[in-house]
Design brief:
With about 170 residues, this protein is of the alpha+beta class. The chain is about 30% helix and about 30% strand. The protein is extended and about 75 Å long. It starts with about 20 loop residues before the first helix and ends in a 7-residue tail after the last helix.
């Protein structure tokens, strides 16, 4: 087994001669960097260092900026019962409030799950207080609130067509 020496070219310690100045010190620096540039361990280290700096930069850039203020919680309560039911509520100093309660529910012989009711209110950027009440159960998530868009009514001709289809099922089986 042969061992390849990694000690070719000038050492980092050779940079101490730079203090004296002159063109030979610049040549020494260039020679050190050129030698280290082709060294396999240095390339891996540099790649790791560059990746680490890039990751650090991304993490730093993704962190919340300083203009967001911390909003303390002024009240909080929660409870989990042995039967699987629970409730929680909290309020923050900016007026945001949330409450939720859930129970275990058997929907049919094969399906069981949580039935949840809740309410959230917060102040929007426009200064208005928005309130959302919701239910989540075997019928899915059902939000309600004045700020939630409502679909327009179904036009009368479409309603008549749907009634006709329901009353006259197709004789073809797919």
């Amino acid at each position: 087994m042969s061992v390849t020496s990694c000690n070719t070219g000038p050492k980092w310690e050779d940079l101490s001669s730079i203090k004296s100045g002159g063109t030979e010190s610049i040549g020494t620096v260039l020679q050190v960097f050129q030698t280290r540039e082709n060294h396999p361990h240095t390339n891996n280290t540099m790649k790791f260092f560059i990746a680490f700096v890039a990751l650090f930069y991304v993490a730093f850039a993704a962190s919340p900026s300083g203009h967001q203020d911390f909003v303390p919680i002024v009240s909080q309560d929660s409870s989990i019962e042995p039967d699987g039911s629970y409730h929680y509520n909290f309020e923050t100093a900016d007026g945001t409030k949330a409450e939720q309660a859930g129970t275990l529910k058997v929907f049919d012989k094969e399906h069981a799950g949580q039935a949840v009711n809740g309410r959230v209110s917060y102040q929007g950027d426009d200064g208005k207080t928005y309130t959302l009440t919701y239910t989540a159960d075997e019928n899915g998530f059902q939000p309600q609130g004045d700020h939630i868009p409502v679909a327009p009514p179904v036009p009368e001709p479409i309603l008549r067509a749907l009634q006709y289809i329901a009353q006259h099922p197709s004789k073809e089986q797919f």
